[in-house]
Amino acid sequence: MRHLVVAAHPREGSFTLALARAHAAELEALGHQVVVQDLYRMGFDPVLTAAELMPPRSAGPGDSTITEAQEAIRAAEVLSVVYPLWWMSMPAILKGYVDRVFARGFAYEATGGVVRGLLSGRRCFVATVSGAPLSQLVASGRWQAAEMLHDIHIFRAAGFDVLEHLHFDEVVPDLSREVAEAHLSRLRASTRRHFGPGTTRAVHPET
Ligand SMILES: Cc1cc2nc3c(=O)[nH]c(=O)nc-3n(C[C@H](O)[C@H](O)[C@H](O)COP(=O)(O)O)c2cc1C
């Protein structure tokens, strides 16, 4: 199966990137084809331009970074997105990736205010990290808001079947090796559960 893993964290030694690498390595060990896009190391420009908002016929040739990023999604059967929750949202670089890459005509179409996702037939695996305990985020309603915004309003709206939103809470800069290893084992178990032997089902991307 073809996978695209998109990761967003500025620090190379971050726990977030350790999660993305562990997920990609586990997928490869299971025999999958994996492309990793580390948005910070790629120097991805998150700023949507006025030209990109022009109707397709009047716009000039598109930015090749964006067309390549769209090609990578088109070629993938599964998109995995790995990032920390910042203000319960995505890091700006990832939000800008969504703004620019999940463009109208590629990720969705809207007629009369009704949005139709164009990336159906593909699956999405979301892995996030927070400093706060998940129980606290749930009790205050923040977690439900994030799930609604990230999983439903963005990924599902674009047509993805969201397999799981795996979350790692209480991730602090001085996370102990034992806790980090336990988290990575949990992620690998999840990767195997979704993509291990006997789990492959046919997908028929429509686009
Ligand atoms: C700008 C910024 C905003 C953050 N906002 C939140 C937040 O709203 N809720 C939360 O639980 N953690 C928040 N955090 C903590 C991160 O989600 C995360 O725990 C931290 O970046 C550790 O992950 P890392 O080891 O991969 O760097 C924030 C961190 C930063 C830098």
Describe the overall structure:
The protein has seven helices and seven strands. It is α/β, with parallel strands linked by helices and 207 residues long. The protein has a five-stranded parallel β-sheet with strand order 2-1-3-6-7, with helices on both faces. Helix 1 links the parallel strand 1 and strand 2. The mean pLDDT is 94. The chain binds flavin mononucleotide. Flavin mononucleotide binds next to helix 1. Flavin mononucleotide (FMN) is lined by residues 9, 11, 14-16, 84-88, 129-132, 171.
Task: Describe what is shown at a glance.
This protein has 207 residues and is an alpha/beta fold.
Spell out the key features of this protein.
about 210 residues; alpha/beta; five-stranded parallel β-sheet; 7 helices; globular; binds flavin mononucleotide
Ligands and ions found: flavin mononucleotide
Large-scale geometry: globular
Order of helices and strands: EHEHHEHEEEHHEH
Task: Report the span from N to C terminus.
Answer: 17 Å
Report low-confidence residues grouped into runs of 5 or more: none
Proportion of residues in helical segments: 25-40%
| Largest sheet data | 5 strands, parallel
Gyration radius (Cα, Å) is 17 Å
Secondary structure tally, helices: 7
Physical arrangement of strands within the biggest beta sheet: 2-1-3-6-7
SSE-based structural type: alpha/beta
Provide mean pLDDT, rounded.
94
Number of strands: 7
Provide the β-strand percentage band.
Answer: 15-25%
